[in-house]
Sequence to fold (1011 residues):
Amino acid sequence: MIKQSLAIMKRELFYMWRDKGMRNIMLFGPLLGLLLFAGVYSYQRVGDIPTAIVDLDHSSASRQVVMGLENAKDLKVVAYPETYDELEKLIHKGDAIVGIVIPENYGKDVDLRRQTKIAVMIDGTNMAYATNATTAVLTVTRTLGAEAGIKTLIAQGIEPDQAKEAYQSIEFREEAWFNPTLNYAYFLVLAFALNMWQQFSTLASCMNVVGEKGFGSWIQIKASGISRLKLFFNKSLVHIFVIMLIVLPIYFFAFVVFKLPLASSWSMLLLFTFAFAVALHSLGTLMSSIFSNAINASRFGMVVALPSFVISGFTWPLEAMPQWFQPIAWILPQTWFFQGINYLSFKNPGWEFISHYLLILGLMAVLFYSLAALAARLREKAFR
Amino acid sequence: MEPIIRVDHLVQKMGRKTFLNDLSFEVMPGECFGVFGTRGTGKTTLVHILAGVDRFTSGEVEILGTNIRKSEKYKRDLGLLTQERSLFLDMSVYENLDFIAALKNAPRKNIEEMIERFELRELLKEPITVLDTIGTYQRLALACALVNQPKLLIVDEVIKDIDLYSRRLIIKELKQYLADGGTLVCAFSNIAMSHYMTRVGWLENMKMIIYTSETALAEWKKQEELYTE
Amino acid sequence: MRQILNIAHYEIAHILRDKILLLIVFIVPLFYAVLFGIIYIAGTLQHVPLGIVDLDHSVESREIVSTFENTPNFKVIPEVNDYAGLEAGMKNGAIRAGVVIPEDYSQKLSQHQLTEILTVYDGSNMIYGLNSRKYLQQVLNTFSAGQTAAYLGGLGMTKKEITNVMDTVSFSMQVWYNPTFSYTTFIFMGLVVMILHQVGFMSISLTVTREKEQNSWIQFVSTAVPSWKIFVGKAIPYFIANFFNYGLLLWFSARFIDVKIGGSVALILLLGLLFNIIIVSLGFVISLYAPNSLQITRYLMIMSVPLFVISGYTWPSTHIPEVLNKIAQSMPYTWMANGFRLVTLKDWGFADMSMTLAVLAGMAVLTSFFALTFSKCRKPLVQTGLVVNETTSYPRKR
Fold:
């Protein structure tokens, strides 16, 4: 009996290997993907936001503001255009993201305690830039505003200590937890690589049933009298084994070579990944038993797999999606996986939290495999 | 008289395997030239080269006076019936005729003529996937091949395994085609067919030996006896 | 002309008969657009769950709490009221940001001593992280201005005097092109272009492989119909369908998802036209040389994520290594997605877009050249070693 199982498994492994397209994807895809994403996000933060300053005043006071901006965190002054029009052009062309205009007579106005206004423009097209730029500007303007205010107060004859106190009695300290430097690479590199991995795995598991029944050799298997349960169980074992095998280098490179954060233990991570691999494979098997040819099975497997990352709320949060849509998002195993991976890599949420996820993924696997068996049954009946 | 087909030192290799090695022959106008061989001897390979479907490794092939590597002008006067089914599976009988006629730039009236000659009238709306016998399929395939009134017709295993009614019809039409002055190249694997042929090119071991129809039959008998011993 | 129209006619007939292809060409693009539309409909991240740990419980600390309660950016979660609760909430995702007010806050404030308020936010999701950080800064800026005003009032200054002092230097901040910081405006059209890209390729790239698999490609090859007619005939239906989808999705996005689509209509059409030509001809070329439909389907599908990430559409290309930018620049998606954004958001004109248009036009010329002049002769199929799903057959019930 064991011999029969081993024969099936060996044959399945050869099948996957000899399917050259699948082999290339499985062998090189995940690592190429990971390297690519690591390359894209190698700067890790959106710092050095190109900034242009128009100093219409050229006074010592305005130069002080310029200096303040030059030293501001995350801003990088790249141009000092002469006029507002030039600045507008720079932002329009995308050469500068932040534009700052210091008005004429700025120094004089400050000396005479007349009100003056510094204009700040931020290009909102790219949010990765825009949010960072806004925060940077907010921080620097608070400081600059305070400095100016203190000066004014002192000039009005108020004690320097009191003047300072008026502006700086409360200090604000900020802490970014779990990802203290707000590192994009930590956030996205692994997630994108795993997103590709789940797509490859979907493609592989979409071959489970149709890859067998779609060939003339299916007659041999039918004639041999082997039980379908046994056949597909053994095939699935091999698939899941391969799926797990190709995730290992991703994890190795991500956590060991690129040193991305992993808050939980390796065993927890692998157990969780395994549960997802089974659930995902069950979904692919369902696809491959519904459709009568490999292309359609692959297509519809991918119809689910492709947008699943966006649906999972890994980037744009689930809570920001419409209320009624959220339960739908949780139907996909991918949502559980990407949410779980986020917790495991950053937060180590503990066994109690993850066991809930494992349970759901397990139940999904049972459901999808049963549906797959049912669908296969129905199809065969229809053909008879 | 100019030959219709002139093949000169034709070699076809795919990967490491050689299928045709240094073939040279000519087919004259009005001839019915048979290409004979058992399965896997390269009949279809040769047919695909002559019809300009596949590239070939080396040598020269001239059909209707054009070097087939340089121009595909000769395809206007070519008809092809393949061994493997090659009609459009997603279309009906009529649509196949209509579409292939359009590809060949053949006048529409030819379609009607073909429908009559191959007795396809009743089947026009049928999808070709449900044609009940291979005989009807072959009748349609031949109709499509002849729709442009080709000067050269190449057929590959046209009447193998088909019902007797269609067989009779097809043979009648092929004879008519020859009588009208057409040239026919016919690949076959049943030696009994060779009495229809003017000459038979026998493919074996990547080479071709040319026989008359009688000597081809005699050669087959001789070999048969050789192996029974 | 008759030949081209005939080929086009039967390609349309095929699309209509192949239910799944029909679905892909006409339903899937809209389906995805609706799906992503639903996901990003909110546009901005609001009501970030916030935990406030008020260790002081004074009138002054209540003020901070109410400042946070009064902004739509945050939703204060009342269950969190001590530091341990804050930590636990941050860990299990119940809250995404937190504020800690020290126990001696009001005391120090009254004694004019320096006191410190701690703000924390969740960096494990960057959208939460960056927005919370920005929102926290905004609230604190307002709050500290209030504090200053109160302090100066305590010194006996009048309201007018206080405003005078505080507004000596003021900052006006404008956000251009996307003033509401809408994520929809930011990312949605990039996804839409990706949908059009993928669906465009998916549909046309099977047109030749399909014929090869059914062996009917021989009918094209063995007749004298020139290559360019085959391409044009087969491409027309897809070209029209792609353009229809382009218009449909743009209309849908502008009408229902509230995406800002401005700029020159002529440019939008021109971009669509060039992009469409590239997709149709490149898809056709892929179809000519790919081994079979299954492999195309697989490879095309998995391209979408890398293409999107590398294009610089989200993560700015200024922060991507040059090598990768070079690769990205050889992809039509990069030019189309970024070009589309520049036209629709920043109202770039023809002069600004000359580079993008030149590159896309170059790609269009190049790809259509290969599509128009392909060699009809097949390379004879070679069976090399043990392989499956590599030749024109793949698993399917017949």
Q: What stands out?
A: The radius of gyration of chain C is 29 Å. The mean pLDDT of chain C is 90. Chain C is about 65% helix and 10% strand. Chain C touches chain A through 115 residues (CB under 8 Å).
